[in-house]
Amino acid sequence: MTNHWIDIQHSDCILIQGSNAAENHPISFKWVMRAKEKGAKLIHVDPRFTRTSAKADFYAPLRSGTDIAFLGGMIKYIIDNNKIFHDYVVNYTNAPFLVDAKFGFKDGLFTGYDPDKRGYDKSTWTYQKDANSVILRDETLKNPRCVYQLLKAHYARYDLKKVSSITGTPEKDLKTVYEMYSSTGTKDRAGTVMYALGQTHHTVGVQNIRTLAMIQLLLGNIGVCGGGVNALRGEPNVQGSTDHALLYHYLPGYLSAPRASQQTLESYIKKITPATTEARSVNWQSNYGKYAVSLLKSWYGDAAGKDNEFGYAWVPKAEDGKDYSVMTLFDVMYAGKIKGMTVFGQNPACSIPNSNKVRAAFAKLDWMVHLNIFDNETASFWKGPGMDPAKVKTEVFLLPASASVEKAGSQTNSGRWIQWRYEATKAPGDCIYAGEAVIRIQNKLKELYRKEGGAFPEPILNMTSDGLSDKGGYDAEKVARLINGYFLADVEIGGKQYRKGDCVPSFALLQADGTTSSGNWICAGSFSQDGKNLMQRRGKADPTGLGLYPEWSFAWPVNRRVLYNRASCDPTGKPYNPKRAVLEWKDGKWVGDVPDGAPPPLAAEGGKLPFIMQPNGVGSLFGPGLGDGPFPEHYEPLEGPLAKNLMSPQQNNPAILLYKSDKDMVANADARFPIVMTTYSSTEHWCTGAFTRWQSWLTEAMPQAYVEMSEELAREKGITNGDKVRVESARGKLECVAMVTPRFRPFLVNGKTLHQVGMPYNYGWRFPEDNGDSANLLTPTVGDANAMTPEYKAFMVNVVKV
Amino acid sequence: MADGKSILVDVSRCTGCRGCQVACKQWNGLPGTRTKQTGTYQNPPDFSHQTFKVVRFADGKDKDGKPYWHFFSDMCRHCMNPPCLAGAQGDEMIHDEATGAVVYTEGTSKSDFEMSLSVCPYDIPRQDPDTKVMYKCTMCFDRITSGLPPACVLSCPTGAMVFGERDAMLAEARRRVDILKKTWPKAQALNADDVRVIFIVTDDPLKYHKYAAGV
Amino acid sequence: MRRRQFLKMSCVLGAGVALCGLGVDLVPIEAWAEEIKKIDRLKSARQTTSVCCYCSVGCGLICATDEKTGKIINIEGDPEHPVSEGSLCAKGAGMFQTTEANEHRLTKVLYRAPNSDRWEEKSWDWAIDRIARLMKEERDKSFITRNAAGQVVNRLETLAHMGSSNLDNEECWSITAWARSLGLVYIDHQARV
After folding, report:
1. Residue in C with minimal Cα distance to B162
2. C163 close to A345: Cβ distance less than 8 angstroms
3. Are A401 and A372 in contact (CB under 8 A)?
4. Which of A651, A657, A788, A623 has its CA nearest to residue A119?
């Protein structure tokens, strides 16, 4: 979230699209309902009418996988009706930038597409520059090559009729949503966007979210109280686990993971620190070298020095351009190339698309180590449906873990608040912290490599033990300090003395010379210099009156509660909306939230642009950073109902990775599978139900797998409510209970009636006995072109009465 | 006695999250029962001697063909003059003076269950088939007499359930109905004078649940 | 009936109900719960703040732990928490069933040998020895020092790690460091799905 949960109450218009917040983030609705009671309007755009829709002032249906068409239409509406927040767009976005003359878009493709590589040469996705390499601008926004005019031209095709024929949303509903939401493009009104997996779970997931962000920029809704682009993250600490890079492509703190071509630390740092010719840009990423060195110092301690590039050689280098994410991981495993796997607190046998492929892949492992608080379909895969244990060679370890209330440590919520919690009791039996299990394995490996030697022992032997307890075990508080970082020498910075051993109170103090450590720069400041754990704070002071609660826990970065908050002020530093001033430039300093960059506002001497994480200092309406285009474009899902994309001759996202195994069948516009399907979670279960299916209060409320469908489809298929039905895709099938409901309605797409059904992915064969199995038996192995997030939300099935 | 306590249930604020349904089980140590999916979100299907709080889900289509989905967090109304007491043989059913809570004790195994159920307008009392003890919501009598809000009320995220002095709850009910009437002309507080658990609905009560307004 | 009389009777509300099922499928009655009413035990319990383990709103919890037995007896919302203000959804309100009151919790290290049809109980020491040995064997066998282009890559492509966003920050960070020290590149978790 750019903002935070409490901030939702300040919104004048809340657009929930690609989220079912009332069901999946129920407590967010405390703040949504509070906003409504202050007069805000709530819009829900979703393929199905949910508990969120039930509370909305306006609900608009759309066919799964067509958000860009829907939102592209909104961009067109905003531009055509001059609803933009002009001052903001001109000053704080790249709307005035002139784009390279050779850049273009034709037949669904941007310039530079290479069909063999399924990717783009992005050399034309750049800006025109003067002799000093400074980007040319036209602040009148009239130059036909400026971003604003290109944007206008790109979305001119997204008229109401075209959008409606793609999305199945009635034209009048589109217009109502566009009117309601674009009313927030004024100084005194704020609109917020709440989205979740309904946006990300697509082959165009990242571009879906970019479209939302672009709308927010056009309306001046980013950085302001009651605004923002707010990802409702789906797991208790998925913000933190992402921050700490349990991902192949990052190191902690969103530092790109090194690739083979970056053979030296210098070349790596050069790669991760973008340059800018914009003098008014803070370009905070130029500091990334300091954070990388401080990370290496926290990992390797004294073994990391200038003479050995701080141990850079010990960090694995992934192959350039190669994907190692989860679907590729299972594709490679299915091919028999992965021998051992550790799975901690996750249930991929039910959560990863195309479960039949995933489960077959497990059987090719030599061994699997699984850690959890309950058994699940992953740990017990060898006795699952269709498995003959006698034929499964895999050695499996199932390690018992402490539950969250039995642990001390921190977790980070969607609003980036890192909250500390305490051990309420000792865990039962032989349960231990997951952290302790990791440390035990790590310590044992160190012992073996020390005694026996082996392949490249340095990274194992040099990995820090500073986070360990006196007895060599896991110690959450000590690890937390390591993450925060220390001064490793007595230093003076900006006239202030810091002593060796002090905690680093802000990442602004981190150094690239090895005199500081920080296991994750964005968390620097979670301890005070004298070592106080700020994540434990429970202060309720509210100096702005906006519910920022700066003394409750610690929010990264540097306790900032609203990201990009300087964009809430005009170039002189006056809040656009003084009634909800998250920040104000007063008497030569910023007052309110922790400012997003200390420099003065744009118009002041030495003034800087507000988007400090962007090299050019402004929000990107033109986004050349992505792999599938600088403007979001509607493409059909890989497996959809239409033989032809109505928007362009390009059927699917041209940059997606295609898998070719014998389990990866796809059936686009195939009469055998005429029904669009989407998957989701309910309030009463969590993810694959790996925790919640073992809890009787929750299985009582949501006992068994079901498929929701319209009364019209049920009539066509001879199905009545409560019947047992079989749902089948090109990849798998399962049986579940039909829920026939007026909350599902057929769509009119391209002039024809189209049915959509939906099913929760909360179930699995392991427990309770008769609950059903995973909806992911049906889903395709395909994902987003940029993030490789799987397409769980739009694919094709058939449903028949059993 | 003063006017005692009341719970106001404003269904216009309810999102059907069922925090209340589970919080009730948690506090009262009630087991989760085995249920089946029968084509509805509502489960368990009804009250039982092990379920004192059920969120009822009702969907349908409005005149304009658009769907609606009503949530009704059903529970004992703790009537001002509880008819179910007619089934009592002695003092096994308590109508607490201070709070107004209606509480069944283990002695209800001797009560006339059929009588109590048949006279209850809201179809609330249930009986353990083995012990014959009668059960229903207690208004979290142990909590409210110890300064804690009822478990269901504490859990409610949106303010759909509030607990307090009856006078204040009645005033709040009037205020809410006045506001809600502007959007939903059918908004009303159900039988506010007769019950301590006052439901505000925004549509025909029968569209929520057969016994929403009593029979 | 007056309240005092009622409290003396204390049946349906107190131990009687508390015993009729703390968790799943009528969990065996725990000895410590037998005598005293829950409300009285709550008053003398140690209170610990925690955070809900499901979605990312991060709602506050108060866990009540019986001082005598060390067991959690109640988990409810933390009214002081500025985001949740005491409220919890169905999952959060049911957090108690993630504790050891739930008979289905794993409490032993389990091991399934190749081609076996059952779990065996093992000790932590045995499991750690075996896991570390398997990891080392595979790492020593398949470690890649240089790629086809001759670049130094120091990575291992035959082991993979997944999870978890359901662990604490400090645990996630420890796993990140450990996985990189092995040379892993196949690292992923729920953030992508």
Report:
1. C87
2. yes
3. yes
4. A657
